[in-house]
Specification:
Structural class: alpha/beta
Number of strands: 11
Radius of gyration: 21 Å
Largest sheet: 5 strands, parallel
Number of helices: 14
Distance between the termini: 17 Å
Oligomer: single chain
Low-confidence stretches: none
Strand content: 15-25%
Strand order of the largest sheet: 2-5-8-1-9
Mean pLDDT: 85
Order of helices and strands: HHHEHEHEEEHEEEHEHHHEHHEHH
């Protein structure tokens, strides 16, 4: 791509990313700190990728999703997942109509643009399976009919850590459908002081306003798709993902026994798209290796399954990913 073409792309990005900056500013009226979390949620919106947020209760995971959803003039639906939930509670069901003597389709709450799947790991396997089709295929089957879900369609799910009582581990196939897994951590002492000053009231006094329409988001996604990724960056992404499967090829034999399963090719695709969305947020029409590094941990942390040996050494997937990023040659 020529310099002039890159300059045109940069201009398109600057023109379109103003609305995303406005969403971030509006969201920060409610959410104190958590800049990285909010940025990465924007990456998910721009890259058309579902997001899984993990953290202990009380860290504003649900509030962050609801606040971002409120800034987009789209249909929003919150679903509180529980152990007694049925697939029909999510997708809808067939209802017998006595007047016609036939069955009518009653669509469920999944037919919305933005879904907040709250405490997703509290629902049983059948519900997870129903959600899996919606997330991957962007469609739902009720009876013998298949219905397309609206565009845009995005699942923003929250979960408490697996060790908490009353939760089910999510199936690996479903976890892999999430483009990003974001870890939500405790705020700093200064941030918590600001939270107390802002939120310690019996009534919520902060209201968010709608910033964009779904059409604006779809237009921004078109620009994200056009962002330039050099062939060297593409090879860098493939090297990173391949290193999770064949570390010895990249002089990383010391971590081979720490990995039970590496990342799938879906990781390469998601890492490239997420890097483009991240570059868009930075106001650039091209992807740099730093964009890949910045978003890489969130794309890969849930796609690497560590071995028993890694657990014995108290190493997790994030430790392995950091080693890979440090060792793989940057173009």
């Amino acid at each position: 791509m020529t310099t002039s073409e890159i300059a045109i792309l940069n201009e398109r990005v600057r023109k379109e990313n103003g609305c995303i900056e406005a969403i971030l500013l509006e969201t920060q009226k409610v959410i104190v700190g958590q800049k990285d979390l909010l940025e990465r949620m924007m990456v998910g919106l721009l890259a058309n990728g579902h997001i899984l947020l993990e953290g202990v209760p009380g860290l504003a995971k649900t509030t962050a999703v609801k606040t971002i959803a409120a800034t987009i003039k789209a249909k929003f639906q919150r679903l509180q997942f529980t152990p007694d939930m049925l697939p029909a509670d999510l997708t809808g069901t067939l209802i017998f109509d006595q007047r016609t003597g036939g069955f009518q389709v009653k669509k469920g709450p999944i037919f919305a643009n933005i879904i907040l799947a709250d405490e997703i790991n509290r629902a049983p396997a059948k519900v997870q399976s129903a959600l899996l089709e919606a997330m991957q295929e962007r469609q739902v089957t009720i009876g013998e009919e298949t219905f397309k879900l609206p565009d845009p369609f995005l699942v923003l799910a929250t979960q408490n850590p697996i060790e908490q009582e009353g939760t089910y581990p999510l199936p690996e196939a479903q976890v892999d459908r999430f483009m990003l897994k974001l870890k939500v951590d405790y705020p700093s002492k200064e941030e918590e002081f600001k939270i107390l000053q802002r939120m310690a009231f019996t009534k919520s006094v902060i209201e968010t306003k709608e910033i964009i329409h779904p059409e604006d988001l779809l237009r921004a996604r078109d620009v994200v798709d056009a962002i330039y990724v050099d062939e060297k960056i593409q090879k860098y992404i493939v090297d990173i993902v391949d290193a999770t499967r064949n570390p010895q090829t990249y002089r990383l034999a010391n971590i081979k026994n720490l990995i039970h399963y590496g990342a799938s090719p879906r990781a390469s695709i998601y890492l490239a798209v997420a890097a483009k969305a991240y570059a868009f947020l930075q106001g650039r029409g091209y992807v740099t290796p730093q964009d890949v590094k910045s978003i890489g941990l969130d794309v890969l942390r849930h796609r690497i399954i560590v071995s028993y040996e890694a657990e014995a050494e108290e190493k997790n997937s994030e430790d392995i990913i950091k080693i890979i990023f440090n060792e793989i040659e940057v173009p």
